[in-house]
Prior knowledge:
This protein is of the alpha/beta class. The chain has helices at about 10-20, 40-45, 65-75, 80-85, 105-115, 135-150, 185; strands at about 1-5, 30, 35, 50, 120-125, 150-155, 170-175, 175-180. Residues about 180-200 have low confidence and may be disordered. α3 (about 65-75) packs parallel to α5 (about 105-115) and α4 crosses α5. The strands form 2 sheets. Strands 4-5-6-1-7-8 form a 6-stranded mixed beta sheet, sandwiched between helices. The protein is built from 7 helices and 8 strands; from the N terminus they run βαββαβαααβαβββα. The chain has a single domain, classed as Rossmann fold (3-Layer(aba) Sandwich).
Amino acid sequence: MVGLLGHNGCGKSTFLRIVATLLKASAGDCFVYGANVKSDGDVVRHHVGFFSHVPGLYDDLSARENLAFAATMLGFPEADIDAALERVGLTHVAHERVRGFSAGMQRRLSLARLILQRPRLLLLDEPYNNLDVAGIALMNGFIRELNAAGGAAVVVLHDLVPAQGVLDRTVTIRDGRVHTPTAADLRHGGDSPQAITLPVGAAGIS
């Protein structure tokens, strides 16, 4: 998993949204597994699973209805919905409206949607926010399964601790550009010595 680091507003989330085809880049090209995000959006979306800091759930639908709607719209297998809810620990509230869910429960439901989708590439925007220890373990377990199956993940992080064990490398972004730290930066603690040139080619992104 590749971690994107940087101060607020530097462009980390914008980068993810461009790769997910939710925003148009002002310049340049981006390819996901050979598909251009500008001209081949449907192909890109078939490969990509986007986990936003905003859950994107329907408050007046139940947990199960939210997943069934996503399955219908995006072509997920509805037969796996109950198993996905069980995996994230929401079976007991499967028929309750999402409106009454805590922030952590909504994050778990969003994770269940990703489990159903089974993307090749995960784009995760602060995925550990509002998750308890068990929720963090669920998220990291899913990332490990994805990696074992040949997939990849790119994650926006402010705290590296929850990602220990699944984070392979980090990239620092400054003002919309990849930043390679200088010796002076490292002496002053400005950037992690692990920061390198954006290595997302391994994740199918170029």
